[in-house]
Amino acid sequence: MNVIKIPYGKQALTLELPDEELAGVLMSKAHDFTPEAGETDLVQQALAHPIGSAQLCELVKGKQRIVLIASDHTRPVPSKVITPLVLAEIRKGNPKADITILIATGFHRATTKAELIEKFGEKIVREENIVIHDSRKAADMVNIGKLPSGGDILLNKVAASADLLLAEGFIEPHFFAGFSGGRKSVLPGVVSKETVLANHCAEFIASDKARTGVLDGNPIHIDMISAARQANLAFIVNVVIDAEKKVIKAFAGDMEKAHAEGVAFVRELATVGAKPAEIVITSNGGYPLDQNIYQSVKGMSAAEATCKEGGVIIICSACNDGHGGEAFYRWFADAAGPKEIMDKIMAIDAASTIADQWEAQILARIQLKHNIIIVTDQCEHQLIENMHMRAAATLDEALAMARQLVAKEAKITVIPDGVSVIVSQ
Question: Across all residues in the chain, what is the average pLDDT?
Answer without folding.
Answer: 96
